[in-house]
Amino acid sequence: MLIEMKVFGLAIDPLTNTPIVILKDLEEKNAIPIWIGLFEASAIATELEKVSFSRPMTHDLVTEMLKTLDVEIVQIVINDLKSNTFFAIIHLVRDGKTIKVDSRPSDAIALALRANATIFVDEKVIQKSMNIDFGKKTEDLSTYSKEKLKEFLENLSPEDFGKYKM
């Protein structure tokens, strides 16, 4: 089952200084963190903040190319999580035909934001993400109740999200 999600914000992992995009479902019952690259975080942040540049950046260029070719990004689906790596599919439509393209979730999210396309996460990915081993000693999040996780997310301060807060 696919769960519609939105970009809740961007944060910085304090241990690795790696950007994290945080997705939340529309009812704010589920959230998943996805560690991403600095350039992709910048592409997501600039779109969230509606920053424009004099020349198109990579994701803006791709978006304009697709529009020129009369191709629409209708949705992205974060569809798998293997060996701590997330996978995504970009769903494109041209002349009524659906085309699916494999993508990194960070690129798919950056493009979806520019195209106002829906972001979905497969329910199995949400379940798997609760047990990710990030290479450091972490607690098993599956031992926490949904209420405890929700309480944790609700109590995050804007400072917890670094300079890329929403």
The count of domains is: 1
Q: Give the averaged pLDDT, no decimals.
A: 85
Could you say which structural class the secondary elements and strand pairing correspond to?
alpha+beta
CATH top level is: Alpha Beta
List unreliable stretches of 5+ residues.
133-144, 161-166
Please summarize the sheet with the most strands: 7 strands, mixed
According to DSSP, the number of beta strands is 7
Taken in chain order, the helices and strands follow as EEEHHEEEHEHH
Q: What spatial order of strands do you see in the largest sheet? A: 3-2-1-7-4-5-6
CATH superfamily: Bifunctional nuclease domain
Based on CA atoms alone, the radius of gyration comes out at: 16 Å
Q: Give the number of helices.
A: 5
CATH architecture tag: Roll
Which percent range fits the helix content?
25-40%
Strand content: 25-35%
As for the CATH topology, it is Bifunctional nuclease domain
Quaternary structure: single chain
Report how far the terminal alpha carbons are from each other. 28 Å
